[in-house]
Design goal:
420 residues; 15 helices; DUF4010; mainly alpha; MgtC/SapB family protein; membrane; transmembrane helix; single chain; transmembrane
Amino acid sequence: METTWSFASTLAVLAGALGSGLLMGIERERRKGAGPHRALAGVRSFTLASLAGATAALLDAGWLVAVGAAFVAALGVVAYARDRSDDPGVTTEIALWLAYAIGVVCAHSLPMAAALAVVVTGLLASRDALHRFARDWLRPAEVHGALVLAAIALLAVPLAPNRPLWGEVLNPQVMVRLVCVLLVIQSLAHLGRRLLDARHAMALSALASGFVSSTATIASLGVAVREGREAARPQGGAAVLSCVATMAQLIVVAATVQPAWLARLWAPALAGTLVAALWGWALLRALPGGAMEAGPAQAAPSDPAMFKLRDALLIAALLTAMQVLVQGLTQWWGDAGLIAGALLAALADVHAAAAAVLVQGRPHDAAGPGLQWALAAAVSVHAASKTAVALASGGWRYGLVAGSGVLAHTAAFVAVLALA
């Protein structure tokens, strides 16, 4: 089918190709060098290649576009074959072909072509930073972890069947997505700890640890207080800040197992997050001189794993087991069984309880109000469990400081949920 181009649209396409070629070409010109070892192309070559692609596309001749692409590719092959430098590369050759292709794209979508030009230029300009990241900053265990995570996200999740095996539970794809989400959370916490090691900021370190386990974070902070290594007030503030991760993970669980609940839960979760963040920050800001530095960091492995797949599988199994438990109790005892199962699950993990409750239905279903109150009860029981852990691990002073914040942010969540 022939395309009729107006004069204005033709000028727009050529102007887009000109700008894209200039953008990429200027970056390459700065790195082209001089003398016999200079690179293949600079600002003029990139601009001409982009304009050639746009012109071929405007002529609406597919054969001409293909011939042009082959010609630019052949130029790159010849230039690479004649390169006698100590470290020959193909970046400029590939970028020149992309400049031609972006010129072709200009005739179909100017915004897409402009975005591609900016992305390509950014990658070209970030050579040194990307090399340092890949060679120096990134660790072998993190590369391995990223490959495993990509395999699960791109292969296991799409291939898993997407249908419940019993009622609304035991959906294989939901279970695999849970594992994937847990691995992503562990990975983010790992990267957060790496970035924060140099800063030793207690608040941010506790927040990052909370994404692994807020309860475990509260317990470890309490042990430091009991042993006399830290004061109760700042440790309690850090413990409350770790509860921000609890609210964030609650939203993640809802989005994974029953996205319909997001509209009902975002406001309560935001209220709980704000109370926990402000409460914990106030306790840390009250330190003399604004001191917020953590104690000496313990020696960490030189190449720690980005995540622990076994832990993610165990947590996902716990979440699924709690869903099955609540499903069975609900079918046996009705609403009373639903609440009983949610409370039992909350003693172990609030996210397991939330997943078990939310998977039973949607907020606008007939069971919606009962599910909402079951979730509120589960979150409350989990807050009481955290307070007990704080008292047991750090004594009454730490338990009072940390427990009051935990209960306050939970009360905010439940209150807003009740008004939703």
